[in-house]
Structure formats: structure tokens, C-alpha cells
């Protein structure tokens, strides 16, 4: 008996990770649930109104689902470093007719309070947090509304802090994960610890149910993290080429490109550590980008949007975990069912 699956209301211990920025669609969330798992509506980079619309769309599918929220953990940027970086990246921005000069750093909290208020008033089965740990009052409010609360952690100290805040579940994310690391100390790269070892370490330190994430791409990967003590596995990159994925065509093609050069942890695009496919942008700017989130995210956002429209894979943030070669063109439900096959 898997008590976490019972609490989540699902039958298969392979869940679809929230992927902000368009990759996670309502269709992907629904497909995950219909395969017996769970999908998460991403709240990141969306207004509270847009989140409400996404929640309504997921609810209309009549399936269980969760919502993932970016919790404030600001990483203020040094203004001089920000200006130097804008000047440096302008050489690439010129190719897409984007002017980065004169921008003022944007230091926002992604409408956190509004989103929490929405989810407290219109509760969903699961609310997960990434980047920061919400206060005990926020966790208690959501739990009182009937939501299970999950927290992304990348190490033992973070796991203990999340447990102290009163969360129900931990998503234990290894450095192999694609996209942003959930680390609470983004000036430090997340430790390169295999996900199975990380699960074992956290399990011995904290008595909460664990969901393993990071680099999982095969049934064997999933079986190993379950054997290490996880009660479920969460996958994202392996779903990016599925029929329900909202990832851009250029992103999907790059994931399957036999000439690809693997992945790299970089802050070049957003000022916060994130794993992406190596490309021209990461090569040129990875060693020069200052820390500063969300300031760098907003700085490079217009350039990245134009690069996606132009099909310029060399300039785009191609988020990908180390298991990206396992992504297939198939239904998302088929992917999740296949990954659970060894259990």
C-alpha cells in the first residue's frame, strides 16, 4: 500500500512535473491523470488571472491535478553587473533586432500572495512550491483548505526546513533535473549527487513521503528511486516530445538532435542555475552571467521569445535534464505507463 498515492488520489507512482513557460499544457495534465498519475498546472510566470483560467481548464477535465507555485526567494542582481551583462548579450540580441539597453532590473515575486489567495479560496488537490519555502501560515492555510502541500528540495538541510514549515510531501530534486534547480541557495550550484543517493539521505533525515525527480528517463531509473525510498517519481524532460507537450518545435527537435552536446547547468538565461542543452548562448555567456533572478529572466525574455519564433536553437533556453535522449514522440500517458513498467 502506497499511502502517498492514496493521498494524491492516483494509482501510478509516475507523475508529470510542472514545466512553466508553455511546455505543460492542460492536455498534458489530463493525460498524466488518465494514465493513473498526476500532472501539475504551472503557476510560474503567469498572472493570478491566467492561473485561475488554467485551474478551471484542468478542473473541466475531471481529473486529479496539482498546481506548482514559485515561492519568493529573491536573488537581487547587482545593477552594475546587470548593465555589463546586457551590454555583452546585446551582440546576440542585435541578430534578432532586440534592444536590451536601458533596461531596469525587474525584481518581482511572481504575484505570490495573489496566487496563494486564489488557491486558498478555490482549492486544488495538491499545491507544490519551488524556489523558496512558504511560511508556516501559508502552508497551514492551504492545508486547511483541503490541499496536500509539497515542497521541492535539493538536499537534507532544505528537507528539514520544509518539514519544519509543515508541508506534507517533499519533491527531492537532483542536479540532473532539467530546467531550474529548486535550490534554496541559488548562488551555489546544486550538489551533483545521484538521485538515488539523495533520496536515501533525505529519507534518513526526514520522515515525510518523498517524490524523486531529476534525470529519470527509463523504467529502471524509476524502479531504482522507488527502491531507494521514494514513494513516487516525477518526470519532465522525458515528456517534452510527447503529443501533448507545449514545447516549441525547435526545442523538441534539439532534444532529439544526434549532434547535441549534452546538458549544462547555467545561469546565462535567467540568473539562476538551470539545466539546459548546451548551445551557442550557454557557451558565450554562461561564464559571464551574474546571479540575479528574476532580473536576468526578464532581461533575456524578449530575446528568447524572438529566438523561438525564428527557430534559433543556438539562442534559446532549451531546458533539458540528463535523460533527454529518452524523450519520445508518443502520447504522454504512454510515456508514463512505460516508465512504471518495471515496478
Could you list some keywords that capture this structure?
343 residues; alpha/beta; TIM Barrel; 2 domains; 11 strands; oxidoreductase
Secondary-structure blueprint:
Layout: H1 3-8, E1 14-16, H2 26-34, E2 39-42, H3 48-60, E3 65-70, H4 79-93, H5 112-121, E4 126-130, H6 136-144, E5 148-153, H7 156-165, E6 169-173, E7 179-180, H8 195-205, E8 210-213, H9 219-227, E9 232-235, H10 249-256, E10 263-266, E11 274-277, H11 280-285, H12 295-310, H13 332-339
Parallel strand pairs: 1-9, 2-3, 3-4, 4-5, 5-6, 6-8, 8-9
Antiparallel strand pairs: 7-11, 10-11
Structural summary, described in words:
By secondary structure, the protein is α/β, with parallel strands linked by helices. It has two domains: 3-74 and 109-244 and 328-339, Aldolase class I (TIM Barrel); 76-108 and 263-319, no CATH class. It is built from 13 helices and eleven strands. An eight-stranded parallel sheet has the order 1-9-8-6-5-4-3-2. Strand 10 and strand 11 (274-277) form a beta hairpin. The longest helix is centred in the C-terminal third of the chain and has 16 residues, at 295-310. The model has no long low-confidence stretch (mean pLDDT 97).
Briefly characterize the structure.
GO terms for molecular function: nitronate monooxygenase activity. This protein has 343 residues and is α/β, with parallel strands linked by helices. It has two domains: 3-74 and 109-244 and 328-339, TIM Barrel, CATH 3.20.20.70; 76-108 and 263-319, no CATH class.
Amino acid at each position: 500500500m502506497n499511502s502517498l498515492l492514496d493521498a494524491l488520489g492516483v494509482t501510478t507512482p509516475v507523475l508529470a512535473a510542472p514545466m512553466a513557460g508553455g511546455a505543460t499544457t492542460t492536455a498534458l495534465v489530463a493525460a498524466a491523470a488518465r494514465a493513473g498519475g498526476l500532472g501539475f498546472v504551472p503557476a510560474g510566470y503567469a498572472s493570478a488571472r491566467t492561473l485561475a483560467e488554467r485551474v478551471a481548464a484542468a478542473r473541466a477535465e475531471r481529473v486529479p491535478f496539482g498546481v506548482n507555485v514559485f515561492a519568493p526567494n529573491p536573488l537581487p542582481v547587482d545593477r552594475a553587473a546587470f548593465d555589463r551583462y546586457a551590454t555583452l548579450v546585446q551582440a546576440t540580441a542585435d541578430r534578432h533586432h532586440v534592444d536590451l539597453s536601458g533596461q531596469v532590473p525587474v525584481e518581482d515575486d511572481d504575484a505570490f500572495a495573489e496566487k496563494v489567495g486564489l488557491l486558498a479560496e478555490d482549492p486544488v488537490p495538491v499545491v507544490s512550491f519551488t524556489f523558496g519555502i512558504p511560511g508556516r501560515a501559508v502552508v497551514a492555510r492551504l492545508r486547511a483548505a483541503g490541499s496536500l502541500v509539497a515542497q521541492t528540495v535539493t538536499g537534507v538541510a532544505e528537507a528539514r526546513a520544509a518539514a519544519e514549515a509543515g508541508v506534507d510531501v517533499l519533491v527531492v530534486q537532483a542536479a540532473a533535473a532539467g530546467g531550474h534547480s529548486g535550490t534554496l541557495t541559488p548562488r551555489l550550484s546544486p550538489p551533483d549527487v545521484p538521485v538515488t543517493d539523495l533520496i536515501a539521505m533525505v529519507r534518513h533525515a526526514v520522515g515525510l513521503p518523498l517524490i524523486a525527480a531529476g534525470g529519470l528517463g527509463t523504467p529502471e531509473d524509476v524502479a531504482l528511486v522507488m527502491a531507494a525510498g521514494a514513494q513516487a517519481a516525477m518526470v519532465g524532460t522525458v515528456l517534452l516530445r510527447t503529443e501533448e507537450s507545449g514545447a516549441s518545435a525547435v526545442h523538441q527537435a534539439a532534444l532529439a538532435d544526434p549532434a547535441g552536446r549534452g546538458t549544462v547547468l547555467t545561469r546565462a538565461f535567467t540568473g539562476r542555475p538551470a539545466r539546459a542543452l548546451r548551445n551557442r548562448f550557454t557557451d558565450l555567456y554562461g561564464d559571464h552571467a551574474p546571479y540575479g533572478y528574476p532580473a536576468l529572466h526578464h532581461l533575456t525574455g524578449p530575446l528568447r521569445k524572438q529566438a523561438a519564433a525564428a527557430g534559433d536553437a543556438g539562442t534559446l533556453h532549451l531546458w533539458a535534464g540528463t535523460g533527454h535522449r529518452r524523450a519520445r514522440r508518443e502520447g504522454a500517458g504512454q510515456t508514463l505507463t512505460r516508465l512504471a513498467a518495471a515496478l
